[in-house]
Design brief:
The structure holds two protein chains of two kinds. Chain A is α/β, with parallel strands linked by helices. Chain A has helices at 8-22, 46-50, 62-74, 93-100, 103-106, 136-140, 153-158, 160-165, 214-227, 246-256, 271-283, 305-311, 315-325; strands at 3-7, 26-30, 55-57, 78-85, 116-121, 146-148, 170-175, 182-186, 199-202, 207-211, 233-237, 240-242, 259-266, 292-296. Chain A has two domains: 1-184, Thiamin diphosphate (ThDP)-binding fold, Pyr/PP domains (Rossmann fold, 3-Layer(aba) Sandwich), CATH 3.40.50; 197-324, Rossmann fold (3-Layer(aba) Sandwich), CATH 3.40.50. In chain A, the strands form three sheets. Chain A has a seven-stranded mixed beta sheet, with helices on both faces. Chain A has a five-stranded mixed beta sheet with strand order 9-11-10-13-14, with helices on both faces. In chain A, strands 1-8 form a two-stranded antiparallel ribbon. In chain A, α10 crosses α11. The radius of gyration of chain A is 20 Å and the shape is globular. The relative contact order of chain B is 0.14. Chain B has helices at 121-130, 166-183, 196-208, 218-231, 276-292, 297-301, 365-380; strands spanning 2-5, 15-21, 28-29, 34-40, 43-48, 53-58, 65-67, 71-76, 186-194, 237-240, 243-246, 252-254, 256-257, 263-264, 267-268, 294-296, 305-309, 328-332, 336-342, 345-359. In chain B, 24% of the residues lie in helices and 26% in strands. In chain B, the strands form five sheets. In chain B, strands 9, 12, 15, 17, 18, 19 and 20 form a seven-stranded mixed beta sheet that branches. By secondary structure, chain B is of the alpha+beta class. The chains are: A alpha/beta, B alpha+beta. Chain A: Its EC number is 1.2.4.1. Chain A: Its cofactor is thiamine diphosphate. Chain A: It holds the Pfam family Transketolase_C.
Chain lengths: 328, 385
Amino acid sequence: MTTRRMTYREAVREALRESLTRDKRVFLMGEDVNRYGGAYACSLGLPAEFGDERIRDAPLSESAFVGAGIGAALGGMRPIVEIMTINFSLLALDQIVNSAATLRHMSGGQFSVPIVIRMATGAGRQLAAQHSHSLEGWYGHIPGIRVLAPATVADARGMLWPALMNPDPVVIMEHATLYNEEDELPTEGDMSVDIGKAAKRREGADATVIAHSACVKKALDAADMLASEGINCEVIDLRILRPLDDETIIASVRKTHRAIIVDEAWRSGSLAAEISSRITEQAFYDLDAPVARVCGAEVPIPYPRHLELAALPQPQSIAAAVRKAMRR
Amino acid sequence: MIEFKMPSLGADMEAATLVEWFKAPGDRVERGDIIALVETQKGAIEIEVFNEGIIGEQRIQPGRKVPVGTVLATIVGPAEEEASIPAVKTTKPVEPRPQERLTRAEEAPAPATPPSLRITPAARRRAAALGISPESLAPGSDGIIGLAQVPTGPERAHRRGAGLDLDEMRKAIGAAMVRSHRDIPHYWVMHAIDATPLFEWLETQNAIRPMERRLLYIAPLMKAVALALKQVPELNGHYKDGVFRPSPAVHMGLATALRGGGLIAPAIRDADSRTVDELMDVIAELVPRARLGRLRSSEMTDGTVTLSNLGEGNADSVFPLIYPNQVAIVGCGTACPRPWVVGNAVAIRQVIQVTLAGDHRVSHGRHAAQFLTRLSELLAHPEGL
């Protein structure tokens, strides 16, 4: 099978192109997606292929254009709504939580909202607090939506189409530091990926490191460092933040007896807290160390480079948490 | 200079991993000192030295698996001043940690006094699966008992620090028994023995003894078996390279079932010349140690005969296979009340069916009958044991 090399950004763009081509009901809407090519250049070039009708610029008005997207979905379209960063999505939270997530339930199953909302998330690009937060856990809290976090180029390429085929709202979080990541992808065939299961990115027997999004790469880097010390980590990429794939997580912890959760978000009330609880609920008797969490510092993400790095989980801090769990 | 080699710890052992040295070059050792820990298919075994002298060079470092016969270290023979130097106590016995029972306190215990036993859930579970009391485990340097501090169980093997791997042990037992079944022409003779006097004697003994001095019937039974074997030397010793070497002393391997399906038969030396109380003490000390997977090399190799007692099970009798290179094994079924002819009447008596498996190259059925008759006589008068 031949492969080609592409970036995460190109994978997102190709996924958009595929969706727009495969289904006439699909359109992309968001701030700057047309004339500017999207905040992270994901839709660059698409207006020329698909026209202004299907690549639609929206005003600075998240609540309005997400609401319009929900209306379009109710009307039979398959909208992809892009929000520049997860921080701004709070302006549309009422639409997402009170409308999109609830309508199937409140209509007794008569209406579904097949909308896909894409947003960039995370820190690491010196964009300061209002562009750098990781609020995935807030979305993970909400029943009625599916939350995806592609950490690899393949997932960035393969998650969009199954998300569009999902009859309920799907939120896809793309980490802003991943857009330039490159990987090999097959040149042909169905690129779709399973949007139900977590993925084991590395096999190991000594400790389970659970991460998502940009932290998967850091966890793998930590695992490489630890392997030279004789500690073999299993690295789980959550991929789907809601519903969480308990089965994969618990099976791994039962095997390794140790769990370290890496989450760029703040520790208090985080997704990491939820996963930690599930592990103690379901695998307490298999644990050989307290469940450990490596999370972002509980501060607004700082602007200066060194402070920003210090506020985020890093391979060194992940490795230190693993060593502690190993009592080394 | 003496070459200290990886010993063969049984008919089935080909290689073992050196886990730890208890002595360093320059240390003086005496006969019987434990100088190393090796991990075999039958658990971690403490290796004793049979010479005295000073450790020279340690050629093998911990972590390496080496075949039987590999030189592990050199020992420089005794100098002029030998013999008078007292043996150095080398083993660090695991102190049982008294468990502070936390009463249902209204308040949490003060943070200044941590609970005496800090054990992880996984370690507690594995210890329970292996039948090990958590209090008997030594915590790590941080005061916590984790999986690393529990001997390895069936769930995972080959953790440094050693212990039992029941799958490996089953393989070793299998290999030894295949060899036994193939190479030893077995015969079996069974005899039902009225053990009522033994049980009556035990009852009166235990009634007047303090709790910690009470006897289990395995102790007088072992003594009786050992004494009966003394009368039939053809059943006690080793058969190797076509030659039978009877043993003047009875070193009795006691088949010990381990939780999870393992089986091991550590030897109790001089079972014939110890008192019943001494045997009880040895058994009480040896069985938990066997279950922890911490036996000594001499206990693995010294056995001259094996006793397999079904104990509290419900099976009437057992037809055991001889452990090579021994030449006999005694199998005792469960003691059960049976109708039994006493004089001209039928009475209810406690009966044990004892089977002797012998090696036909060395003995035959008459030897077995002789042994069983003698055993029967001895058990009729337990007070004389």
